[in-house]
Design a protein that fits this description.
Blueprint: H1 2-5, H2 10-26, H3 33-48, H4 58-65, H5 69-80, H6 89-98, H7 107-118, H8 125-137, H9 146-153
Helix pairs in contact: 2-3, 2-6, 7-8, 8-9
């Protein structure tokens, strides 16, 4: 939550949730099914709320301009999560798929993931995403992701 609330980075917020999800699964803590579903759902939404990368990464622009503060900042944030390199949206999506996290989330959110990351059809995306957006809006623990998900959809 620190990364999200500080406005530092949705990328690192999602990465922290990935770590929490995998650690809680690894240590097999006794969580209710609802808690497991909520953590998986939050992890999925945090990952989907990461802005899509631009054709030309901002880091490349900074490097060409001779500025190196952004890559250094990314590396230091990555080190806070004990990562050797900064994560990317694509690596987090790949981790979601590999760990089958989408199978643990609410079915409506699973459909959103499928529409955005598996079978993206621009003509039906709005129709497919509407139930998930309503679900997110009606659940206070997920509603903070709503503006970011909408931005990703556009």
């Amino acid at each position: 939550k620190v990364f999200f609330m500080s406005g530092t980075s949705q990328l690192f917020h999602a990465t922290a949730l990935h770590r929490l999800y995998f650690l809680s699964k690894e240590h097999k803590k006794t969580h209710s099914e609802e808690d497991k579903t909520n953590l998986a759902s939050q992890t999925l939404l945090a990952t989907l709320s990461i802005p899509l990368p631009h054709i030309r990464e901002q880091t490349d622009v900074l490097l060409e301009a001779g500025e190196t503060t952004e890559p250094v900042k990314l590396k230091s944030l990555a080190s806070l999560l004990f990562l050797s390199a900064p994560p990317t949206r694509q690596t987090l999506i790949r981790d979601l798929r590999r760990a089958h996290i989408s199978q643990s989330v609410h079915p409506t959110l699973r459909q959103l993931f499928h529409a955005l990351e598996v079978e993206t059809n621009c003509l039906t995306l709005a129709k497919e995403a509407t139930p998930a957006l309503e679900y997110i809006a009606n659940h206070s623990e997920f509603s903070l992701y709503l503006p970011l998900i909408k931005k990703t959809l556009v």
